[in-house]
Amino acid sequence: MPHSPRARLAVAATTAAVLGLSLAGCADSADESTPSGASNENGFPVTIEHAYGETVIEGAPERVATVAWSNHEVPLALGVVPVGMAKATWGDDDGDGVLPWVEEQLEELGAQTPVLFDETDGFDFEAIADTNPDVILAAYSGLTQEDYDTLSKIAPVVAYPEIAWATSYEDMIRMNSAALGLSAEGDELIDDLHAQVDAALAEHPDLAASSVLFSYIDPSDFSQIGFYTTLDTRPGFLADLGVPVPDVVVAESEGSDQFYTSISAEQADRFEDVDIFVTYGEADGAIIGQMQGDPLLSQIPAIAAGQVAILENSTPFAASANPSPLSIGWGIDEYFALLAGALD
After folding, report:
1. Which CATH number fits domain 205-341: 3.10.20.30, 3.40.1170.60, 3.40.50.1980, 3.40.50.970?
2. Is the pLDDT of residue 17 over 50?
3. pLDDT higher than threshold 90 for residue 124
C-alpha cells in the first residue's frame, strides 16, 4: 500500500479504473445477451472485485443492508434508505445507536431509522438475514473470510478492496454506489465532498503545511507511543490532502498491513518532525500536561510546545475524525479548526 499523497491517490484512481472496467465488461456482456428491443436495467448486472474475489449483482437492489462502520452513509447520501445498518456504539451522543449526521439525513429523507445490527460481539447474521436484503454493503470493513462466506449465503456482499479497514471514503463510495447502480451519482458525491474539504482546508494554510501524527496516548502507560499508520483512514485522509506525513509514520507504515502500531517512548527522538499530535482524551486537556511532565514524551518538540489536538473521547466530533460521506459536511470545518488551533 502507498504511503504518500500521490501514491494513495494513484491507488484510488486504479481502483476506480478497475471497477469501471468490471462494470463496463458486465454491461457489454449483458447487452450482447439482451433480446432486441429490451433494455439492460441501470446497467445491471454489475461485477465488483474485492479482497475475497468478485460479487455479481444481477439487478438493481431494492432492499439494501449494510454492516460495519459508515457503509450505510453511501446509500443514505444518495437518497436510498437501508433496511438495516450497523448500530453506532462509539460516538453516539444520545444512546439511540445513530450518529447525528445520520439522524439528520434520515430526517431530511423523511425516513424511519432502519433496523440496527448490534456488532459489539461480531455480526448478527440472524438479524441481517431477517431484513431480507438484496445486497450487503461492506466496502469499508474488517470482514474475515468466514464473515464474507456467511453473509454471502444471505445476499451478494461488497467486501473491502484489499486490506481490512483501509478503504478510503472515496473508494467506499465508488464500490457501494456501483452496487446500487448509482455510480454516476457516487462520483458526483465524491466531487462535492472534495470541494467541501478543499474549501475547509484553505481556511487553515498553516495546517496544510504541518506534519500531523494521529495517535492514541494511554494516560496510564506512557512507555508506549501508539499511532495510526497511513493505511488508516484518519491519517490517510490528511495525507491525500497533501498534509505532510511524519517520518516515523512513513517508516512504520512501509510494508505493513496494520492500521495501528506502537513504539517505545524511548524512541521519542523519532517524532522530532511532528508538528501536531492528535490524540483522544478528556475535554479538560489534562493529558497534555501529563505528557509534558513525562521525562521521555517531554522530549518531543510538539508535546513540549503543547501542540496537541484533543478529540474528546466517544463524542460524535471524535467519531467524525474518521471521514465518511455524511460526517464530512457535518464537522470538517470544526475538525480542521481544532487541528490548526494546536499550532497556536
Report:
1. 3.40.50.1980
2. no
3. yes
